[in-house]
């Protein structure tokens, strides 16, 4: 922000720290948790990932806006993150795929952005104090009641205990057949299997559904509140639990009974992120809030069964406490950043889940094998 320019946006942290900058996108105010994401690409996928409901995202990579936005890159129909914080004001798009400018898109979709922020200082603050509660305000006239904004950030109850999955889930069931556009090395499209998969939508990213379809699945998506009876009535060959926002323990009030009911049917089951956390809860484990979580596209994860390291895309603020996993449930993956749990499996059964995002959107493709593993488990069951 030029020294002479009057700030048109501000970010007030609950500890009273205030960052001033230039507003873009929608005007108004929002109160949320503040996280940082270190990915160098994929700002549109990040903003439209429903798992970011209730969170404002600080982008540590400074170039945001340079490839514009295109509906093809939406993870759901609209940005779900509450707002975005960037170092420089978004640049004009220069990309053949761009259909809109980031700033215009944010305005149209009612999401606030703030540019000109020292994102390095802000990120250090997030690391030190844990993901803070913030109020983000954008007013072209530059009038801000800072005391009121700080008070709003302080009064906000936060994500612990908050169930947001119901808000972002679909309300009606639907079929999904669209496949991936690009293939990770060594993989090609699997067709003709028609593996009947029921995917529970807690805020599912579209590229996860594409990956399931590409692995040979014929996917029926059900709303978050679907019961085990609803799921099993569709005679699935496998069940998938999606990613999603909020506290897994709060979402678990309805998801856990459903998952326990489905587990009795002894079907292949695969969960990602929130789905992973809720599978752990259903099996008797516990989840805890992390200090500032993991949000980025280069997080190393070790597969404990093979010793292989995957570079993964991550976005989570809660984690499964591996100490609480009961007998018969194994930890399969760990984060090489902090040793936190990144995967579990029920011993001897094709029931498994991962904390990270193997659909590679945005980011690395190393973990696509998990979709194939899920599909292979269904094929094995079919031929048994
Ligand atoms: N990406 C996700 O599914 C996030 C899960 C959960 N809301 C968390 O923050 O840990």
Keywords:
Carbamoyl phosphate synthase small chain; 384 residues; alpha/beta; globular; seven-stranded mixed β-barrel; glutamine amidotransferase; 2 domains; binds glutamine; ten-stranded mixed sheet; arginine biosynthesis; CarbamoylP_synth_ssu_N; Rossmann fold; GATASE
Describe what this molecule looks like in 3D.
This is Carbamoyl phosphate synthase small chain. This protein starts with 8 loop residues before the first strand and ends with a helix. It is 24% helix and 30% strand. The protein is α/β, with parallel strands linked by helices and 384 residues long. A ten-stranded mixed beta sheet has the order 8-10-9-11-12-17-16-15-13-14, with helices on both faces. It folds into two domains: 9-155, Glucose Oxidase, domain 1; 165-383, Rossmann fold (3-Layer(aba) Sandwich), CATH 3.40.50.880. The protein is built from ten helices and 17 strands. Helix 8 (248-264) crosses helix 9 (274-282). The structure holds glutamine.
The second-level CATH architecture of the largest domain is 3-Layer(aba) Sandwich
Mean pLDDT: 95
Structural domain tally: 2
Please describe the biggest sheet, giving its number of strands, its sense, and whether it closes into a barrel: 10 strands, mixed
CATH superfamily of the largest domain: Class I glutamine amidotransferase (GATase) domain
Compute the separation of the termini in Å.
Answer: 65 Å
Radius of gyration from the alpha-carbon trace, in angstroms: 21 Å
CATH T-level topology of the largest domain: Rossmann fold
Enzyme class: ligase
GO molecular function: carbamoyl-phosphate synthase (glutamine-hydrolyzing) activity
Region (CPSase): 1-195
Active site: 273, 357, 359
